[in-house]
From TrEMBL:
This is Nucleotidyltransferase. It comes from Caldimicrobium thiodismutans. SUPFAM superfamilies: Nucleotidyltransferase substrate binding subunit/domain.
């Protein structure tokens, strides 16, 4: 399942950004070089959320032979099926993802990065169960995850 591999890679990259994170200071005048790690973190957070939601969509179709009309319904379905503990986190992640692309002011960036770090850690924790259940589901149906 290609979407699983994309999810896994996005997760690894986000984890790497979190390990090297220094809190953003809106009072500091960052150089372009210093801003690269924040740009990478933003991109990796957005990519991780996108890849996770894409995998959830693929998984839902695979498991239930249909897709929900809304993300909220998809998350509820996957939560009921035991793939997620806190589906609401992914709605928060999508909202924050949307905010990332529209935030430019340093004061807003300080708050945004603080929220992103907190939510990213929760999502990565949540994704442990999700990933385990995905692999179990794929194994039960005798499918590989490569490709």
């Amino acid at each position: 399942m290609r979407s699983y591999n994309h999810f896994k890679r996005a997760k690894e990259l986000l984890e790497d950004s979190l390990m090297n994170y220094e809190p953003f200071n809106s009072q500091k005048d960052y150089t372009e070089e210093e801003l690269k790690s924040y740009d990478a973190l933003s991109f990796r957070f957005v990519k991780f959320v996108e890849m996770a939601l894409s995998l959830m969509s693929t998984l839902e179709l695979y498991l239930f032979a249909e897709k929900s009309d809304t993300l909220r319904n998809r998350l509820l379905r996957l939560e009921r099926a035991g793939f997620l503990k806190k589906g609401e986190l992914w709605l928060q992640a999508r909202a924050l993802r949307n905010e990332v692309v529209h935030t430019y002011m340093p004061e807003e960036l300080e708050r945004l990065f603080a929220n992103m770090i907190e939510l990213a850690r929760e999502l990565l924790s949540e994704s442990i169960l999700f990933e385990k259940k995905v692999l179990e589901a794929l194994g039960e149906k005798n499918l590989g995850i490569g490709g």
